[in-house]
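Quick note —
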Amino acid sequence: MLSAAWVIIWQILRIYPARAAAGIPYPQLYAENAQVKDNPAALRYNCVQRCHQNTLENIPLILISTLITGLKYPYIAAAASFFWVLTRVAYTIGYSSGVPEKRGAGNASGSLALIGLLVAATVTTVQVCFF
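Predicted structure written out below.
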Protein backbone atom coordinates (compact mmCIF):
# COMPACT_ATOMS: atom_id res chain seq x y z
CA MET A 1 0.00 0.00 0.00
CA LEU A 2 3.03 2.22 0.13
CA SER A 3 2.74 2.50 -3.65
CA ALA A 4 -0.75 4.01 -3.20
CA ALA A 5 0.74 6.69 -0.96
CA TRP A 6 3.29 7.54 -3.66
CA VAL A 7 0.53 7.81 -6.27
CA ILE A 8 -1.34 10.23 -4.00
CA ILE A 9 1.80 12.34 -3.57
CA TRP A 10 2.37 12.28 -7.33
CA GLN A 11 -1.20 13.48 -7.85
CA ILE A 12 -0.70 16.28 -5.32
CA LEU A 13 2.39 17.42 -7.18
CA ARG A 14 0.35 17.60 -10.39
CA ILE A 15 -2.19 19.93 -8.77
CA TYR A 16 0.21 22.80 -8.04
CA PRO A 17 1.27 23.57 -11.63
CA ALA A 18 -2.27 23.02 -12.92
CA ARG A 19 -3.59 25.51 -10.34
CA ALA A 20 -0.93 28.06 -11.27
CA ALA A 21 -1.55 27.66 -15.03
CA ALA A 22 -5.30 28.15 -14.52
CA GLY A 23 -4.85 31.07 -12.13
CA ILE A 24 -7.14 29.56 -9.50
CA PRO A 25 -6.48 31.24 -6.14
CA TYR A 26 -6.48 29.49 -2.79
CA PRO A 27 -8.73 28.43 -1.09
CA GLN A 28 -10.94 27.95 -4.16
CA LEU A 29 -11.16 24.18 -4.65
CA TYR A 30 -12.38 24.14 -8.27
CA ALA A 31 -12.59 26.58 -11.17
CA GLU A 32 -16.06 28.04 -11.62
CA ASN A 33 -17.98 27.43 -14.86
CA ALA A 34 -17.20 30.93 -16.13
CA GLN A 35 -13.48 30.36 -15.53
CA VAL A 36 -13.63 27.03 -17.37
CA LYS A 37 -15.43 28.68 -20.29
CA ASP A 38 -12.80 31.42 -20.59
CA ASN A 39 -9.68 29.37 -19.85
CA PRO A 40 -8.95 25.81 -21.08
CA ALA A 41 -6.32 25.49 -18.33
CA ALA A 42 -9.14 25.84 -15.77
CA LEU A 43 -10.83 22.71 -17.10
CA ARG A 44 -7.55 20.83 -16.95
CA TYR A 45 -7.06 22.03 -13.37
CA ASN A 46 -10.56 20.79 -12.45
CA CYS A 47 -9.73 17.40 -13.95
CA VAL A 48 -6.42 17.14 -12.08
CA GLN A 49 -8.07 18.20 -8.82
CA ARG A 50 -11.03 15.84 -9.28
CA CYS A 51 -8.70 12.96 -10.09
CA HIS A 52 -6.86 13.45 -6.81
CA GLN A 53 -10.07 13.82 -4.84
CA ASN A 54 -11.52 10.66 -6.39
CA THR A 55 -8.42 8.73 -5.32
CA LEU A 56 -8.84 10.04 -1.77
CA GLU A 57 -12.48 8.92 -1.83
CA ASN A 58 -11.46 5.39 -2.87
CA ILE A 59 -8.40 4.87 -0.69
CA PRO A 60 -10.27 3.91 2.54
CA LEU A 61 -12.06 1.08 0.73
CA ILE A 62 -8.83 -0.09 -0.85
CA LEU A 63 -6.90 0.02 2.43
CA ILE A 64 -9.44 -1.82 4.55
CA SER A 65 -10.22 -4.47 1.94
CA THR A 66 -6.50 -5.04 1.28
CA LEU A 67 -5.75 -5.40 4.99
CA ILE A 68 -8.63 -7.82 5.58
CA THR A 69 -7.87 -9.88 2.47
CA GLY A 70 -4.22 -10.01 3.48
CA LEU A 71 -5.10 -11.89 6.66
CA LYS A 72 -5.70 -15.09 4.69
CA TYR A 73 -4.70 -14.28 1.13
CA PRO A 74 -1.67 -12.00 1.23
CA TYR A 75 -0.62 -12.61 -2.38
CA ILE A 76 -4.09 -11.88 -3.70
CA ALA A 77 -4.26 -8.73 -1.55
CA ALA A 78 -0.86 -7.53 -2.73
CA ALA A 79 -1.54 -8.26 -6.40
CA ALA A 80 -5.01 -6.70 -6.43
CA SER A 81 -3.94 -3.57 -4.58
CA PHE A 82 -0.88 -3.14 -6.82
CA PHE A 83 -3.11 -3.57 -9.87
CA TRP A 84 -5.39 -0.86 -8.44
CA VAL A 85 -2.37 1.44 -8.07
CA LEU A 86 -1.42 0.86 -11.70
CA THR A 87 -4.97 1.68 -12.78
CA ARG A 88 -4.79 4.90 -10.75
CA VAL A 89 -1.72 5.91 -12.74
CA ALA A 90 -3.59 5.31 -16.01
CA TYR A 91 -6.66 7.10 -14.60
CA THR A 92 -4.54 10.08 -13.52
CA ILE A 93 -2.77 10.41 -16.86
CA GLY A 94 -6.03 10.16 -18.79
CA TYR A 95 -8.09 12.47 -16.59
CA SER A 96 -5.31 15.03 -16.19
CA SER A 97 -5.28 15.57 -19.94
CA GLY A 98 -8.25 17.89 -19.52
CA VAL A 99 -10.51 15.50 -21.41
CA PRO A 100 -12.57 13.74 -18.73
CA GLU A 101 -13.55 10.93 -21.08
CA LYS A 102 -9.91 9.76 -21.15
CA ARG A 103 -10.21 8.51 -17.58
CA GLY A 104 -12.37 5.59 -18.70
CA ALA A 105 -9.90 2.71 -19.01
CA GLY A 106 -8.19 3.42 -15.71
CA ASN A 107 -11.51 3.95 -13.99
CA ALA A 108 -13.11 0.73 -15.25
CA SER A 109 -10.14 -1.51 -14.49
CA GLY A 110 -9.68 0.18 -11.10
CA SER A 111 -13.30 -0.57 -10.29
CA LEU A 112 -12.69 -4.24 -11.09
CA ALA A 113 -9.72 -4.28 -8.70
CA LEU A 114 -11.80 -2.64 -5.99
CA ILE A 115 -14.69 -5.07 -6.43
CA GLY A 116 -12.25 -8.00 -6.38
CA LEU A 117 -10.72 -6.76 -3.14
CA LEU A 118 -14.14 -6.21 -1.57
CA VAL A 119 -15.26 -9.73 -2.51
CA ALA A 120 -12.01 -11.24 -1.22
CA ALA A 121 -12.30 -9.25 2.02
CA THR A 122 -15.88 -10.45 2.46
CA VAL A 123 -14.83 -14.08 1.90
CA THR A 124 -11.97 -13.64 4.35
CA THR A 125 -14.26 -12.13 6.96
CA VAL A 126 -16.74 -15.01 6.64
CA GLN A 127 -13.95 -17.58 6.87
CA VAL A 128 -12.32 -15.96 9.89
CA CYS A 129 -15.59 -15.38 11.75
CA PHE A 130 -17.53 -18.55 10.96
CA PHE A 131 -15.08 -21.32 10.07
